[in-house]
Amino acid sequence: MLGPVILAASRSDRMRRLISAAPVTKQVVDRFIPGETVTDIVPIIGDLAARGLELTMDVVGEDITTPEQASAARDAYLELIGRLKELELGEKVEMSVKLSMFGQALEGGHELALANVRPVVEAAAAIGTTVTLDAEDHTTLDSMFAIHEELRKDFPQTGCVIQAYLFRTEADARRLAEAGSRVRLVKGAYKEPAEVAYQRKHEIDKAYVRILKTLMEGEGYPMIGSHDPRLISIAQELAHQAGRKLDEYEFQMLYGIRGDEHLRLAAEGHRMRVYTAYGTDWYGYFMRRLAEKPANLRFFLRSMVSKG
After folding, report:
1. In the chain, N or C: fewer CB atoms in 10 Å?
2. Is position 302 annotated as part of the catalytic site?
3. Which residues contact 194 (CB under 8 A, 6 or more apart)?
4. Contacts of 108 (CB under 8 A, 6+ apart)
5. What is the residue-wise DSSP string for 31-93?
């Protein structure tokens, strides 16, 4: 399986330098990350919103080594929210944040990440939108869930992400569904050991369906993070069985992947949110996109060969 190999490469400085230097890389990265600055990304936001799509915005960059970098990440999100306010797009666009960007891995990281993310959540609420806390590797999740719980005391609309491949997630889903929170379910895109996570695709898929059933039958707002046509069909059937209306759940897919499906679901009346990343520190995000789906890797390799 190539996925674990690619994920290992995502942590390699040598591979980062090699791939970043390849002439074709920028062209391929642009498929998944359509801009480096807020100014770059504003036309993308406007275009997707005009097509009936909603968005969740991710400022890429996870290799935070100083408190100053964590503060800069906070400020980047505040700048984005300021532009969304000017454009009156708050109701169409939410934010996705990785707490590692806000200093979670530094000394005193839990408190630092909470202090940095809170003003972002406050600013988002002020323009009529919200923030979802992305899940990272399993060692960070207890801190993420604790920060999520703390933020929801003042901002109950704050969302979080759970990952189907982790053994713990079925219990997390039951707890979150009862709490009535917004929960995005994804398969998982980090290299995790067999002691904590399913390793085979069919096991992950079955866990995904079990967890999604729990979310659909609960009191929360499920967000289906998948491009898998079979899982999308199952999600629609589970929503029907649970008596959910079209605005009581949503689909989420990545920018640059299955764009026609984004539009098809929106045309059918579903809430369809496009996960759109931007920024200069794109390497880790890009490598996980390659690891998630063999077709993404084939696209990259074909491009390298054709551009020689």
Report:
1. C
2. no
3. none
4. none
5. HH---SSHHHHHHHHHHHHHTT-EEEEEE------SHHHHHHHHHHHHHHHHHHHHHT-TTTE
pLDDT in tens, 238-297: 999 999 999 999 999 999 889 999 999 999 999 999 999 998 776 766 666 666 655 555
**Catalytic residue chosen out of the listed positions 74, 184, 271, 273:** 184
Question: Is 271 one of the annotated active-site residues of the chain?
Answer: no
Nearest to 161 by CA among 174, 171, 148: 148
Report angle CA 188, 96, 175 to the nearest 5 degrees.
60
Question: pLDDT value at position 161?
Answer: 98
Of 165, 186, 156, 173, the residue nearest 273 (C-alpha): 186
Task: Round the average pLDDT of the chain to a whole number and report it.
Answer: 88
Could you tell me the pTM of the whole model?
0.87
Residue 61 near residue 22 (C-beta atoms within 8 A): no
3-class SS at 95?
strand
Q: Among residues 118, 62, 1, which one has the least CA distance to residue 280?
A: 62
Which amino acid, 253? M
Catalytically annotated residue among 58, 134, 172, 205: 134
